Amino acid sequence: MTPHVVEPDPQAGAAVKAADRAHVFHSWSAQGLIDPLAVAGAEGSYFWDYDGNRYLDFTSGLVYTNIGYQHPRVVAAIQEQAAKLTTFAPAFAIDVRSEAARLIAERTPGDLDKIFFTNGGAEAVENAVRMARLHTGRTKVLSAYRSYHGATSTAINLTGDPRRWASDNGSAGVVRFWAPFLYRSPFYATTEAEESARALQHLEDTIAFEGPATIAAIILETVPGTAGIMTPPPGYLAGVREICDRYGIVFVLDEVMAGFGRTGKWFAAEHFDVVPDLMTFAKGVNSGYVPLGGVAINAEIAATFDKRPYPGGLTYSGHPLACAAAVATIQVMEDEKVVENAAHIGEHVLGPGLRELAERHPSVGEVRGLGVFWALDLVKNRETREPLVPYNAAGEANAPMAAFGAAAKKNGLWPFVNMNRTHAVPACNVTEAEAKEGLAALDAALAVADEHTA
Length: 454
Prior knowledge:
With 454 residues, the chain is of the alpha/beta class. It is built from 13 helices and 16 strands. It has a 7-stranded mixed beta sheet, sandwiched between helices. Strands 11, 12, 13, 15 and 16 form a 5-stranded antiparallel beta sheet that branches. A 4-stranded mixed beta sheet has the order 1-2-3-14. It starts with 9 loop residues before the first helix and ends with a helix. The model has no long low-confidence stretch (mean pLDDT 96).
């Protein structure tokens, strides 16, 4: 794409901001304490405001614009579908819906060949858990503390991070456990092999004390996203697969954030040679251009509902505009080798570049990731690994991370900041030059974080 020339228009920006503040109720926010940036436009890996400031987006929106903003082929596909058939009820067979399902099923591992469409990731998790409970006749679902699965009723109860607390009703049949995370090991492990073995034993013990016959499913993010991009150690996911098989538990992998090229594979499960029973997806399936998510279902669970109605559905399930965007996005990813680009950028640019930053900045405790899915764990002290800010910090306690974020934006980088981490999660088709630009901006911002180290 030709770089967009940013024409400042502060008056228009002020009008957008005023309307937002008057009428828009924002998620996850104290409404009177926020000051949303008024965005004038976006293209590729960049977006800009009405004052003429241009930002390299190292968040991919909310880790979903996997092919960047405004890709012309996907925009055209949405326009063409709108002219042909804008919407239609989900009970009918529609060409673009069928094609989207076919293309997704071709790329999912194993026999995950049936696709149930939702409007997003949280609804995908809701329905995956419902399928697992109905298939097994059991109620409990096990999920990890360091996790995020969405904000609908079941999904928020499955979530491990603090956003759950205000909505945790304690009666949703959810049991949490510790998944592996060697850098902050809850198992006092010193190697990946120890962490994997001890985490699996902990999971076995949890199942034994909860009662294997009461557990419908175990749900894990293949590579946890917002919780910190902790790539599971070798053998862990295969071990969970074996445990699920032994006890008749449905294994659900949440690929809402990690899927569709983010880790340098179509799905992150491919890195670990593991096939779940159910897989949730959303976000990158169509780069977020029109809301779409879904559940990929294996043959055994799909057969449960051959003669028995599945008691779930959504008015906009498989919406034609969303499916047209998915078809075009998958075709773009194939034609432009977007998945391969994500792998290349991770291996040759982001990975080495972030590790080099870690060598020079005492605020960086650990670098971890795959593809274009990376996290920097920021610390006060490398030896003690004390986080740069406390868990779930707010206000003055969060000042060091706020200062880091402000410095990144001053240098033209929009960062993904969560607790004591910053995530480097650009578009999967980010160029080498753009990735290096992002690394340079991170370098300057980390100098600010360094001021808060001991």
